[in-house]
Amino acid sequence: MNIVLFGPPGVGKGTQSDNLVNELGITHFAMGDILRAAVKSGTALGLKAKSFMDAGKLVPDEVVIGMIEERIMAPDVEGGFLLDGFPRNVSQAEALAVMLEKHGKQIDRVVFMDAPEAMLLERLTGRLICKACGFGFHRHYSPPREEGRCDRCGGDLYQRDDDKEEVIGQRLEVYAEQTKPLLDYYKALPAFRRLDATGEMPAVYAELIEAVKS
Fold first, then answer.
1. What are phi and psi of 27, to 5 degrees?
2. For 185, what's the count of Cα atoms within 13 Å in the CB-facing half-sphere?
3. What are 77-93's pLDDT values in tens digits?
4. Cis peptide before 87 (omega within 30 of 0)
5. What whole-number distance in Å separates Cα of residue 185 and Cα of residue 163?
6. If you average pLDDT over residues 112-140, what whole number do you get?
7. How far apart are CA 41 and CA 132, in angstroms?
8. How many other CB atoms are found less than 10 A from the CB of residue 18?
9. What distance in Å separates the CA atoms of residue 125 and residue 159, rounded to the nearest whole number?
10. Which residues contact 58 (CB under 8 A, 6 or more apart)?
11. At 101, is the secondary structure helix, strand, or coil?
12. E-assigned strand segments in the chain
């Protein structure tokens, strides 16, 4: 089964993706991971992407699509895949559809995870990371036993710059401009499902697996 999972920052895509690929036995494609792996391995596309990244520019869609094409043709992807973080806009979705058709593949399910902006802000701005071991906490959902101290190693906790409210606001604006129009592209397809991600994590996952299998 081939799945596209998308939604705003903080909606829980990463956590739910891990659960889903483990249950279905498919390959998880996190776009950031694919990009870093290609750059690290020094492939032709990786070197091309690095040249844009070093110049502070966005990696062009055709390069990103090429990287995904390399991965979906690998032997470990025979059971299917889940795309997390791609496509980010309609032009990428169109390019993805053309590329998959070329290889006789298709997207079997598109799931849009949604939650109110106030909840997204609370989730994102509440995250805390240990400076020493990198373990994560949350001020509201999983707070440390001692404020400012890691339960595991006693290290200092801090908030990443990209989890600060002003930065989160910018990320949500970019999402609204670029990614939300994917709803208009995908929602007319029989494969499309919309998921309310405001509940507790296990309940949201139960609804997600039902949406995928229904």
1. -95, 135
2. 21
3. 888 999 988 898 899 99
4. yes
5. 29
6. 93
7. 28
8. 14
9. 8
10. 52
11. helix
12. 2-6, 27-30, 81-84, 109-114, 127-130, 136-138, 157-158, 192-196
Contact between 71 and 29 (Cβ < 8 Å): yes
Q: What is the pLDDT of residue 212?
A: 95
Q: Which two tokens stand for residue 122?
A: 């609370």
Q: What is the pTM of this model?
A: 0.83
The residue extents of the domains of the chain are: 2-116+167-213
Tell me the catalytic residues: 13, 88, 127, 160, 171
**Alpha-carbon span 81 to 28, nearest angstrom:** 6
Q: What is the DSSP string of 58-82?
A: PPPHHHHHHHHHHHHTSGGGTT-EE
Say which residues have a Cβ less than 8 Å from residue 196's Cβ, sequence separation at least 6.
114, 115, 204, 207
**Going by DSSP bridges, is the β-strand pair 2-6/81-84 parallel, antiparallel, or unpaired?**
parallel
Residue 110's SS3 state is strand
C-beta separation of 86 from 129 below 8 A: no
CB-based contact 209:3 (threshold 8 Å):
no
CATH of 2-116+167-213, picked from 1.10.150.120, 1.10.3720.10, 3.40.50.300, 3.40.50.11780, is 3.40.50.300
Give first-to-last CA distance, the chain, whole Å. 13
| Residue matched to tokens 């070197």 | 47
Which pair of tokens denotes residue 169? 């606001």
